[in-house]
């Protein structure tokens, strides 16, 4: 059986995903076969495995850190919010259906056998499994029949590292308050506390750490500094949405309410002379060099949102001057019409932005597949024809040209022949030659030159980030204590 360790947090966005990824990298560097696991993920960023199954991207990122291919058993349950009170429920990579929050709360214990089965699959390929929790284990309204925090820890008898985020304030109250709200058996599982995202002189914290250990009766396993690590975030709480600085090349991404798979643009964010801004209003849009319409969990609703707040009209006007690129749901919006005969989203028919000669019909069956090859001939300012690509498709619906509605479009990227582009392929920018062509073209249009070295291979860049993360954690965590938790994983 694999050894297990679990990372839980005092709140969402406390840094659980990054810390779990860092531990995966450290254990891999130390010669172990390691795999990540999260029983239930709630996120709109998802990934399609080689088998055509859907999983959360946080575990894909952690699998990369572990040097293992992503497998859907690393994330057996994925919840993709469709509105403020309900989600699409995906089990073992396939859509089970849409459920309201209360309905899922009552149903979720029926999924415990699937969680255990997925975990057993991982045990066959890993010496160590790093489990990530969700939110906080002290959400007293959710503790009954929990399957993702202490309930998950109990299923596999896992020792727990509890992480608090000092950058958001009140870290001692976070950690002590969480411990106080756990029952004795749950508290016994917490073997170490971590203060995360610290800025400043650690010696100033020492009195607080001493009192924390005295009152909590749990040792502090480390104080981790705030890290400038460019890796994928789990969900829309990401801090990248707050960046508003315009760089030499300024890319504006429309941040609709149900934005999905914004990890598609990470490659641009790591380029030193490129800024990626997420905008929610016309006032924030300014005068970018390119506008991107990203994926969305609800195309029709988010298009209406753009229409109501003026962003649709602003983007249409900009499309006469600068490139506009739609991915997945954003691509569907760029067409002339979106119809929903089966009420997959809202039902009925809605006019599109009318920037591409396409129509989209939403369908009940979700398309899930990986795809790669060379781009078909693409007209327009970007010289993309023939460039290699690799990515995946994940969408409800098919798109065809207006004049040939019975023929689904087979091209990788389509355009209006000049400045407007659309594609269903997530990850299409990840190949360096595609990203380089886009940025080089934008620079030429602006009359500037991009410095040599700005186009580092994205996969190599990510590998360096994983190593940087592991090096930092080795320095600031008590790894002897953490390895001791693994040796003593059989708590009872």
From TrEMBL:
<protein>
    <recommendedName>
        <fullName>Cobyric acid synthase</fullName>
    </recommendedName>
</protein>
<dbReference type="GO" id="GO:0003824">
    <property type="term" value="F:catalytic activity"/>
</dbReference>
<dbReference type="GO" id="GO:0009236">
    <property type="term" value="P:cobalamin biosynthetic process"/>
</dbReference>
<keyword id="KW-0169">Cobalamin biosynthesis</keyword>
<dbReference type="InterPro" id="IPR029062">
    <property type="entry name" value="Class_I_gatase-like"/>
</dbReference>
<keyword id="KW-0315">Glutamine amidotransferase</keyword>
<comment type="function">
    <text>Catalyzes amidations at positions B, D, E, and G on adenosylcobyrinic A,C-diamide. NH(2) groups are provided by glutamine, and one molecule of ATP is hydrogenolyzed for each amidation.</text>
</comment>
<dbReference type="Pfam" id="PF07685">
    <property type="entry name" value="GATase_3"/>
</dbReference>
<dbReference type="InterPro" id="IPR011698">
    <property type="entry name" value="GATase_3"/>
</dbReference>
<dbReference type="InterPro" id="IPR047045">
    <property type="entry name" value="CobQ_N"/>
</dbReference>
<feature type="domain" description="CobB/CobQ-like glutamine amidotransferase">
    <location>
        <begin position="250"/>
        <end position="432"/>
    </location>
</feature>
<dbReference type="GO" id="GO:0015420">
    <property type="term" value="F:ABC-type vitamin B12 transporter activity"/>
</dbReference>
<comment type="pathway">
    <text>Cofactor biosynthesis; adenosylcobalamin biosynthesis.</text>
</comment>
<dbReference type="InterPro" id="IPR033949">
    <property type="entry name" value="CobQ_GATase1"/>
</dbReference>
<dbReference type="InterPro" id="IPR004459">
    <property type="entry name" value="CobQ_synth"/>
</dbReference>
<feature type="active site" description="Nucleophile">
    <location>
        <position position="328"/>
    </location>
</feature>
<dbReference type="InterPro" id="IPR002586">
    <property type="entry name" value="CobQ/CobB/MinD/ParA_Nub-bd_dom"/>
</dbReference>
<comment type="similarity">
    <text>Belongs to the CobB/CobQ family. CobQ subfamily.</text>
</comment>
<feature type="active site">
    <location>
        <position position="426"/>
    </location>
</feature>
<dbReference type="Pfam" id="PF01656">
    <property type="entry name" value="CbiA"/>
</dbReference>
<feature type="domain" description="CobQ/CobB/MinD/ParA nucleotide binding">
    <location>
        <begin position="5"/>
        <end position="228"/>
    </location>
</feature>
<dbReference type="InterPro" id="IPR027417">
    <property type="entry name" value="P-loop_NTPase"/>
</dbReference>
